[in-house]
Amino acid sequence: MPQPTFAVSVTLRIRSEHIDSFRKRVLQQARDSVDREPGCHQFDVLIDESEPTVFVLYETYTDASAFDDHRSTPHFKDFDAQASDWIEAKNVHCLTLLEK
């Protein structure tokens, strides 16, 4: 398997009344992404220790094209449609691995 060269860090502030629903749904999204997408190497879901409404998603992909493929999958589209109303704020960083 090739080394991932592309990563995405997404910081999300979730509306407090939707935290439990979001937690369950995003964990399923993470599993689906790793299990169903050969270009998705890692999909971690983290929560801010001091602010329980803040989640960080850290995802690694073979390359930017694999991330584009991820965004066109049915499970991503379903997640995005379901979770979009639960999200109060979103900040996305697309990152490329520097050569070693």
Automatic annotation (TrEMBL):
This is Autoinducer 2-degrading protein LsrG. Residues 6-95 form the ABM domain. InterPro entries: ABM_dom (IPR007138), AI-2_Isomerase_LsrG (IPR050744), Dimeric_a/b-barrel (IPR011008). Transmembrane segments: none annotated. GO terms for cellular component: cytosol. PANTHER family: (4S)-4-HYDROXY-5-PHOSPHONOOXYPENTANE-2,3-DIONE ISOMERASE, QUINOL MONOOXYGENASE YGIN-RELATED. The gene is lsrG. It comes from Novipirellula aureliae. It comes from the Bacteria. One of its GO terms (molecular function) is oxidoreductase activity. Signal peptide: none annotated.
